[in-house]
Amino acid sequence: MKRFVMALGLILFLVGAVALVHPNFDYHKREEVARVGRVTATFDRPERATIPPIAAAALLIAGAGLIALGPRLK
């Protein structure tokens, strides 16, 4: 149980650190615009997602807390 809590804390801490350094990330969303029989027309639209700094800080704090409290568990 200790290792799981500490590993989860480390993952949360790393995700929070990456979110603070690089809060925006781009991805492509594929949409189907037309379908005629078995032929379909799709469109790839670029999207951008932003992680708020408060959420990144919360991940950092939660991760640090789990790392600190992990060894104290039974």
Structure notes:
- This protein has 74 residues and is α+β, with helices and mostly antiparallel strands.
- The protein has one domain (2-72).
- It has two helices and two strands.
- It has helices at 2-21, 53-69; strands at residues 24-36, 39-50.
- The chain has a two-stranded antiparallel ribbon with strand order 1-2.
- The termini are close together.
- The mean pLDDT is 93.
Based on secondary structure, the structural category is alpha+beta
Helix content: 40-55%
Broad shape: elongated
Say how many strands there are. 2
Quote the distance from N terminus to C terminus: 8 Å
User: Which stretches of 5+ consecutive residues score pLDDT under 50?
Assistant: none
Number of domains: 1
Report the C-alpha radius of gyration, rounded: 20 Å
What's the number of helices?
A: 2
β-sheet strand percentage:
25-35%
**Overall average residue pLDDT:** 93
Largest sheet: 2 strands, antiparallel
Strand order of the largest sheet: 1-2
Order of helices and strands: HEEH
